[in-house]
Amino acid sequence: KVNNLGGLGPDSSASEGDSGMIRYGKACVLDGQDVDLIVEVLGDYFTTTPGNNGRSPCGAYGSISVGFGTMVSLEARFVNADTGATVRVKDFFFTIFDMDLHDGHEEKVTIKDFEQQFTTHNTLVLQEDVMDGTVF
To answer: 5, 24, 115, 124: most buried, per Cβ within 10 A?
Structure first.
C-alpha cells in the first residue's frame, strides 16, 4: 500500500498520515477483516537503496534496506485495513532472511516485546538474550 520508510521514498505520493512508513496491505485476515502491517522508523534511518524497500521481488516477503555501517530501530504493528485501528494478532511468525557475516561486517537483529522466539534446529545464527530483548 505505502512504501516510504523514513520518508525516503520511493512512494512520494503517500498521504500525510502514511508518510514515513511501509504499510504492507492485507498481511493477514483476522475475524474476517483484512489486517495491514505497518513498519515505522524510531529515530534515524539511512539507506542508499530505498527502492529495495517494500515487497520483495522474490515472493511474498517484505524487504527493508539498511545502509552499510548503520543501524535502525523499527516498530511494527498490525492495524485494521479499513479503519486503521490497532489490532492484536495473537500468534504469528516473523521470519528474518539474509543475515550475513562477511568481511568483518556482521548483520544483527534485535527483537523486543515478544512472548516467544526461536530459530530452526540447524541454524548458524547465534542467539543472545539481553536485558530488553533477544539479539540474533
So the answer is: 5
